[in-house]
Write a structure and sequence with these properties.
Elements: E1 7-9, H1 11-41, H2 49-73, E2 75-77, E3 90-96, E4 99-105, E5 117-119, H3 124-129, E6 137-141, E7 147-157
Parallel strand pairs: 1-2, 4-5
Antiparallel strand pairs: 3-4, 3-7, 6-7
Helix pairs in contact: 1-2
Organism: Pseudoscardovia suis
GO biological process, one term: DNA-templated transcription elongation
Domain Transcription elongation factor GreA/GreB C-terminal: 83-156
Length: 160
Amino acid sequence: MAEEKTVLLTQEAYDKLKKELEWREGPNREEITQKIAAARAEGDLSENGGYQAAREAQGKNEGRINELIVKLRNAQIMQAPKAGTVGNGSVVTIEIAGNEMTYVLGSRDIAVATEYDVISPESPIGAAIEGHKAGDEVTYEAPNGRKITVTIKDAKPLAA
């Protein structure tokens, strides 16, 4: 069995994932079950497209339920670093080659609670900027081998 990793989430992301789990285990599961029952009542299941689609939806729903259970079980509510410092849970504005962009540094799981795109701390750019401060200029090596310079314009905690 694979070792389960800690999932760093903001409180808002945790709450949204928990709400999704409740919906999937309750109303969504019931709706899918009703569709399967209705399709089964139509007769021949081997050529029943509605039945096959409902069974596929059931499989996807159950898979997502299992994924959410594991994430929530391994969740740790993160405390974003103070303003000015880049860390997990920071909204960071960077400039690359004259283009300014704003991201959240953190796991893709926190994307459910923010309108920003997310940069993983394990990515080359994420690893390069983490721990630095607004005003710092850092260089990292992109996957294609190019050296890219990034200027950190601003860093603030992701508001809940």
